[in-house]
Amino acid sequence: MDIIKNYGKLIKKNISNPSKALNLVKLGLSIENIRVNKFKDKSLPKSFQYLNKICLKFVLDPLKNPQKSCWTNLFSPCELFHSFNINPLSIEAMSSFFSGLMCEDAFINYAEKLGINDTLCSYHKAFIGAVQSKILPLPKLAITTTSICDANTNTFKYICNNTNVPYYIIDVPYEHNKESEAYVSSQLKEVIVFMEDIFQKKFDLNNLKQIIKKENETNKYRKEYMKYLGINFFPTTLTLEMYMLFTSHIFMGKEETYIFYKMLSDEIKHYPYREGKGIFWVHLIPFYHPILKEYFNSNKDYQLLGCDLNYDYMDHMDYNNPLEAISKKIILNHGNGPYERKIASILNISNILNADAVINFCHWGCRQSSGGSMLLKERLKNENIPYLSIDGDGIDRRNSHVGQMKTRLEAFLEIVNNKY
User: Fold this and answer.
1) For the sheet containing 69-72, what is the strand order?
2) Which of 310, 316, 351 is closest to 334 using CA atoms?
3) Contact in structure between 258 and 309 (CB atoms under 8 Å)
4) What is the C-alpha separation between 275 and 281, in angstroms, rounded?
5) Residue 356 CB contacts under 8 Å (≥ 6 apart), including other chains
6) Whole-angstrom distance, CA of residue 137 vs CA of residue 123
7) Which of 30, 171, 187, 407 has the most Cβ atoms closer than 10 angstroms to its Cβ?
8) Helix (H, G, I), strand (E, B) or coil at 142
9) How far is C-alpha 240 from the geometric centre of its chain's CA atoms?
10) H or E stretch including 259?
C-alpha cells in the first residue's frame, strides 16, 4: 500500500506536467498488467485472474491509442463501439483507476477549483479534473446517454465543449413502448452516421449482428453463473466485482468477455456449497474501503454476491434487428424508468442468488442511489429481507469514515446472523 500511495503522490506532484503525469499513469497500469500476467494470484479462481488481465488492457488501450478511442459512460451502446473497432473509455472506469492509484483527490480538487460543485459525483469530478488538467489524451469523439445518471449530460457537454471533442448525447425515454424504442433507434442511426464521418469508416451491419449474437451467447453463461452463485461459495473481492462492470457493460459483446463468463460458469460448478451468509450489494462498491475488504474479500462467512449493476439487463437480444434490440436494452435497464422496476429486479436477482441480506450504497453526489433508498427498504422489509443503507464515496477516500462504517456494518451482520 505504501508503494501505491507514494506512486500516487508522484502522479499528483506532476499534475502541472500533463505528459509526465499521463506517462506515470500508463506506467503504473502497465506494471500492474505485467504483475497480474506473470505473478498470478493463485488464491483467486482462474476466471478472475483472467478478468484482472483483460480489464487492465481495456483501460490501457484508449490511453495508448486515443485516435481509436471514445469517451463514454457505463450505459452507452457499447455494441456500436465494438462494431467500429474503437476502444471505449468510461468515466466510471478511469476514475476508479485513479482511485486505485491513490491520486483521485488531486483530480477532484482540480475540478472543484475550476468551479465544479462539490456535490457533483466524484467519478465525474475526477474525470473532469483529469481532462481539464490535460492529463487524459483526447479521443476522436464522445458518446453518452441521459439515462441513470443525471451528471452525464452536463459533464460530457462541459468536457467536450472545453476540448472541442465532438459528442453525441442519446436521449433515453423514461417509459418503454414501441414509440420510445423507435425514438432511440433513430438516434442510434444518427450515431452511426456520426461515427462513420469521424472515423472515415463504413458501418458493417453484419458485424453488429455478430457482436449481438456473441452477447447472447455470453449471457447464457452469465445466467448459469448466477444459478450456481446462489448455492456455491465462490471467492471474490470488492475490486473484482467492480471490474465485472467492464464485462457486463462497455465490453459486452467482445470475445474476451465471452471467454471470461464461460470460464466463470465452468469454474463455479466445482466450488463447495455456500455455508456463510450471502450479501447482495446495490449500486457502486467502494473497493478501497478497509472495513469492507475485511468482511467481504474472499470471506466464507459473508459471501459477496455481486452488485445489481452487473445484472441490470440480461434479456435475449434480437440480432436480426440490432438497433431495436440495443434500444430496448438501453430503455429497459433496471436503473431507467420508475424505481419500482429496479426494486422488482433487485428482488428477482436476490431470489436467484439466495441472498440473506441486501446492502444499498448511497454514493456521494448520486441522487439515484439515495433517492430510492427508503422505497427499497420498505419493499425488502415486506419480503423479510434484512437491509442496510450506508453512505460513502465510491472513489474518494476522504468521504468515507472507517469507524462509522465498522460500527454500522457489524451491527447489521449481527442482525443477519441472528435471523437465520
Assistant:
1) 87-90, 69-72, 141-145, 167-170
2) 310
3) no
4) 19
5) 277, 278, 279, 386, 416, 419, 420
6) 18
7) 187
8) strand
9) 11
10) helix 255-268
* Cα 11 from chain centre: 24
What does the H/E/C string look like for 68-123? HEEEECCCCCHHHHHHCCCEEEEHHHHHHHHHHCCCHHHHHHHHHHCCCCCCCCHH
Residue written as grid cell 434484512: 386
CB 278 within 8 A of CB 385: no
Closest CA to 170 of 69, 81, 77, 74: 77
Q: Are 220 and 317 in contact (CB under 8 A)?
A: no
Q: Give the whole-angstrom CA distance, residue 158 versus residue 156.
A: 5
Q: Distance between CA 332 and CA 81 in Å, rounded?
A: 20
**Set of cell numbers at residue 103:** 491520486
Q: Return the amino acid letter for 71.
A: W
Helix (H, G, I), strand (E, B) or coil at 43: coil
Please give the chain's pLDDT, 420 residues, in tens.
589 999 999 999 999 999 999 999 999 999 988 888 877 777 889 999 999 999 999 999 999 999 999 999 999 999 999 999 999 999 999 999 999 999 999 999 999 999 999 889 999 999 999 999 999 999 999 999 999 888 889 999 999 999 999 999 999 999 999 999 999 999 999 999 999 999 999 999 999 999 999 999 999 999 999 999 999 999 999 999 999 999 999 999 999 999 999 999 999 999 999 999 999 999 999 999 999 999 999 999 999 999 999 999 999 999 999 999 999 999 999 999 999 999 999 999 999 999 999 999 998 877 666 677 889 999 999 999 999 999 999 999 998 888 889 999 999 999 999 876
What cell does 10 get?
A: 508522484
Distance CA(250)–CA(264), nearest Å, equals 19
Instruction: Decide: 327 and 318 in contact? Cβ < 8 Å.
Output: no
CA neighbor of 401 nearest in space, from 364, 352, 353: 364
Tell me the chain's radius of gyration from C-alpha atoms. Answer: 21
Does the pTM exceed 0.70? yes
List alpha helices for 290-401, DSSP H: 290-296, 322-331, 339-352, 367-371, 373-382
User: Helical H runs in 15-66?
Assistant: 18-38, 46-64
Among left, alpha and beta (phi > 0; psi -120 to 50; other), residue 293 is alpha
